[in-house]
Design brief:
The chain is globular, with a radius of gyration of 17 Å. The protein is α/β, with parallel strands linked by helices. The protein contains four helices and 13 strands.
Length: 218
């Protein structure tokens, strides 16, 4: 069974480490803020100028002036700071973010990512994605494994305009957790109830499958 958006975010949260500074992109990545382990000291950064982002607010906690990069209302944690976007991008470009979580349209076996343009369709645009993929060594891409018509998004070569080249090492889809190395996709984990065969059929790029592929645990 394919993972929900919330389950993808939960699995990403397992990759967090104590003391990390983490940037969360628009879409599924923003949900990761809701699943940071309570005992873990992690500072979430938003490119619009917030360091110390918390989970989404409950009813009665909403501050319309406190938003993330996707213009969703959020909370802040103790020790949070607010600044302009120029300072935020200086942090990103300076390599001060330990982990970046991004969405994407396509990823290929060479670690290339396409995330900002689909010809003929109105898309929000680049945003801070190009800076984020250039300024971070540790990036996790979250997305569905295939489009609604069954077309794979994990390709031998990206077909859409690239956001970054050779920068992606890990992809978490609704079907699998995959690492990119040596010009191949390597299957690490599969979603509960999803077969290896399903993943292979929906992966267009070369996929290395070990003898045993564990199910993700939540």
């Amino acid at each position: 069974m394919a993972l929900t958006r919330e389950q993808i975010a939960m699995r990403v949260a397992q990759e967090l480490k104590d003391g990390y500074y983490v940037n969360l992109g628009i879409g599924i990545p923003t949900l990761v803020a809701n699943y940071v382990p309570k005992e873990m000291a992690v500072m979430l950064q938003s490119e619009n100028g917030l360091l110390g982002m918390g989970s989404f607010p409950l009813t009665g906690e909403v501050d319309p002036d406190l938003i993330n990069a996707g213009k969703q209302t959020v909370t802040s944690v103790t020790g949070a700071s607010i600044f302009d976007s120029a300072e935020s991008f200086a942090m990103i470009r300076g390599g001060h973010v330990d982990l970046t979580v991004l969405g994407a349209f396509e990823v290929d076996v060479n670690g290339n990512i396409a995330s900002y343009m689909i010809p003929g369709r109105l898309i929000k645009g680049m945003g801070g994605a190009m800076d984020l993929v250039a300024g971070a060594d540790n990036i996790i891409v979250t997305m569905t494994h295939a489009s609604k018509d069954g077309t794979s998004k994990l390709l031998q070569n990206c077909q859409l305009p690239l956001t970054g080249k050779g920068c992606i090492r890990k992809v978490l889809t609704d079907l699998a957790f995959i690492e990119i190395r040596e010009g191949k996709f390597h299957l690490l984990e599969r979603a509960p109830g999803v077969s290896v065969r399903q993943i292979v059929e929906l992966t267009q790029g070369e996929l290395e499958v070990p003898e045993y592929v564990p199910e993700m645990k939540f």
